Task: inverse folding
């Protein structure tokens, strides 16, 4: 492996989808379901992080791997209105949707990675959260493409 190798985070998303499509949600495979949720989140997180840096929504130094880089990225996507023209209001809405999906998947990922009994929040199920993670990630990636295209038009 060369030093300039950049990992394609789409592999994380593909792996989560493979786990979901396998459909074996037995208790013996709980570790796989948890892994799928975690990989879906991290795949989307890295796509969003790269997007934020490339489009100068945030700088690389603001997103250095630290305890608050995930929160900082989510907050940027969900709460800042970067676009003030009428067309830009739609872009702000798309950006907010992406941030909300990333935030929700972060909650799922935290439960999947850190909670011995899943989930910590009542009313959720592991299998459904994996499905939501896979579908939500795909929708958020589509929205990232729409957002990037829209930003080029402004």
Result:
């Amino acid at each position: 492996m060369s030093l300039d190798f950049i990992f394609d985070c789409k592999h994380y998303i593909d792996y989560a989808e493979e786990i979901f499509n396998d459909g074996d949600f037995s208790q013996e495979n709980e570790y796989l379901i948890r892994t799928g949720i975690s990989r879906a989140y991290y795949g989307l997180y890295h796509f969003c992080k790269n997007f934020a840096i490339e489009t100068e929504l945030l700088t690389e130094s603001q997103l250095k791997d630290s305890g608050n880089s995930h929160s900082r990225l989510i907050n940027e996507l969900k709460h800042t209105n970067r676009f003030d023209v009428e067309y830009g209001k739609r872009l702000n809405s798309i950006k907010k949707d992406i941030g909300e999906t990333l935030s929700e998947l972060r909650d799922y990922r935290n439960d999947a990675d850190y909670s011995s009994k899943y989930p910590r929040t009542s009313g959720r199920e592991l299998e459904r959260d994996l499905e939501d993670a896979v579908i939500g990630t795909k929708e958020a990636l589509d929205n990232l493409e729409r957002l990037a295209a829209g930003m080029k038009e402004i």
Q: What stands out?
A: Residues 86-114 form the longest helix (29 residues). The chain is about 70% helix and 0% strand. The chain has a mean pLDDT of 90. The chain has one domain: 10-153.
